[in-house]
């Protein structure tokens, strides 16, 4: 076999379409696992040959994603393969795999020797249907650095991906993006990319405002804030904005705080778009019900302490005709209760929980302005919750947590 010249000019970059085609990976360690993960993204039919595999690889075998032959490589294993990876820790075995591949005219990547490989694996990143592959001239870290920089630029919009926008005159669409608890760094990669490629952004005041600052001037930003007990845009008006802009051929992003479907009225917006024939994509977000307590050092569950946690909307108090919450059932629970939108109603909710069985001395943590520079935590008990909120001047947005897990956070 003739070794491949590793000079960068010798590389011919090509994208292999391996969907439904057989690929053989010999080896069962960490390198093999990384290669298998990428091949599965390409929907290849992957066969792994190795006496042992990592737990992560074994987990792929059980549902049938990967075929595993639990033995050492033997000549003939590459029969019918379109591509091969030699990733064992034995150089002689890797050489034998590469030799069989060469004779069968199957491209083969050797994990231990680039110069003896007929194919090199680039540093690969994906952004939707866009695939970025970088060869670093023999330096894997260089390739990874460039790949990450390109993906970051595409994600935040500093590298324009105009083809991702609808063509002029084509049908528009709506993406419901959960912006997470407030810090732009806690938005999903897919959500950040959706915002960066939007023509119109309809944003709540709880959405990460830092994402809006980097948008080009031509992007229309619509303020759809709903201030507690204050000014707000009617939901029907928000729905109309989404539908009308999309029907005009725009890519519309509805940027919401937290997750679109956790007290976010996202389903109403999805239904409005669907009724108008507008395509809708949902990008989940990190809900503040879990993220904000976590950022304050309060886990909502802990082994041996709680087997459940409940997220409740506190925008109407117990006993209110509009309330759908079974406060009596929550008072009987032993686990964690997380209350959103419950600052003004906190004293009445606490009283209801105590009335129905919760210990008045149950610890409570109130976290206001979570995931922002102004985040602060006030610790109290159910009995003292109302007074603590009044004394500390706590205003929305705030999340409060009831349960023994609050005591864990106090130990930090």
Automatic annotation (TrEMBL):
Question: Do you know which InterPro entries this protein is assigned to?
Answer: 4pyrrol_Mease, 4pyrrol_Methylase_sf, 4pyrrole_Mease_sub1, 4pyrrole_Mease_sub2, CobA/CysG_C, NAD(P)-bd_dom_sf, Siro_Cobalamin_biosynth, Sirohaem_synth
Query: Which residues constitute the catalytic centre?
Result: 204, 226
Which terms are listed as keywords in the entry? Cobalamin biosynthesis, Lyase, Methyltransferase, Multifunctional enzyme, NAD, Oxidoreductase, Porphyrin biosynthesis, S-adenosyl-L-methionine, Transferase
Q: Name one Pfam family in it.
A: NAD_binding_7
Please name the Gene3D superfamilies in this protein's record: Cobalt-precorrin-4 Transmethylase, Domain 1, Methyltransferase, Cobalt-precorrin-4 Transmethylase, Domain 2, NAD(P)-binding Rossmann-like Domain
Transmembrane portions of the chain: none
List the catalysed reactions.
Answer: precorrin-2 + NAD(+) = sirohydrochlorin + NADH + 2 H(+)
The name on file for this protein is Uroporphyrinogen-III C-methyltransferase
Domain Tetrapyrrole methylase intervals: 174-384
Q: Which GO terms describe its biological process?
A: cobalamin biosynthetic process; methylation; siroheme biosynthetic process
Which source organism?
Modestobacter roseus
Q: In which pathway does it act?
A: Porphyrin-containing compound metabolism; siroheme biosynthesis; sirohydrochlorin from precorrin-2: step 1/1
> GO molecular function: any one?
uroporphyrin-III C-methyltransferase activity
């Amino acid at each position: 076999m003739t070794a491949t010249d590793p000079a960068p000019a010798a590389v011919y970059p090509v994208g292999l379409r391996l969907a439904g085609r057989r690929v053989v990976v010999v080896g069962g360690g960490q390198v093999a696992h990384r290669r298998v993960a990428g091949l599965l993204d390409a929907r290849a039919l992957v066969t792994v040959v190795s006496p042992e595999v990592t737990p992560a690889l074994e987990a792929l075998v059980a549902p049938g994603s990967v075929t595993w032959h639990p033995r050492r490589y033997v000549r003939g294993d590459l029969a019918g393969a379109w591509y091969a990876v030699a990733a064992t820790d034995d150089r002689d075995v890797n050489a034998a795999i590469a030799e069989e591949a060469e004779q069968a005219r199957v491209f083969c990547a050797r994990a231990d020797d680039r110069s003896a490989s007929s194919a090199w694996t680039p540093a690969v990143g994906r952004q939707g249907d866009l695939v970025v592959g970088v060869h670093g001239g023999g330096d894997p870290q260089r390739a990874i650095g460039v790949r990450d920089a390109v993906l970051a630029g595409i994600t935040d919009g500093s590298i324009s991906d105009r083809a991702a926008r609808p063509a002029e005159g084509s049908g528009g669409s709506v993406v419901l993006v959960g912006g997470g608890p407030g810090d732009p760094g806690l938005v999903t990669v897919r959500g950040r990319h959706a915002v960066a490629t939007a023509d119109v952004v309809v944003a709540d005041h709880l959405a990460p405002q830092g994402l809006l600052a980097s948008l080009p001037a031509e992007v229309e930003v619509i303020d759809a804030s709903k201030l507690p007990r204050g000014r707000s845009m009617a939901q029907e008006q928000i729905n109309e904005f989404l539908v009308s802009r999309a029907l005009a051929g725009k890519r519309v992003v509805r940027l919401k705080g937290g997750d679109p479907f956790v007290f976010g009225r996202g389903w109403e917006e999805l239904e409005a778009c669907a009724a108008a024939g507008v395509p809708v994509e949902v990008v989940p977000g990190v809900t503040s019900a879990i993220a904000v307590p976590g950022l304050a050092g309060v886990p909502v569950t802990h082994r041996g302490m709680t087997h459940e946690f409940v997220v409740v909307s506190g925008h109407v108090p117990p006993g209110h005709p509009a309330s759908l919450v079974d406060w009596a059932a929550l008072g009987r629970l032993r686990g964690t209760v997380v209350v959103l939108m419950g600052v003004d109603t906190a004293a009445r909710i606490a009283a209801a929980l105590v009335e129905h069985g919760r210990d008045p001395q149950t610890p409570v943590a109130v976290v206001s302005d979570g995931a922002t520079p102004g985040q602060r935590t006030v610790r109290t008990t159910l009995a003292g919750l109302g007074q603590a909120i009044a004394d500390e001047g706590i205003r929305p947005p705030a999340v409060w947590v009831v349960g023994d897990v609050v005591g864990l956070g106090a130990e930090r």
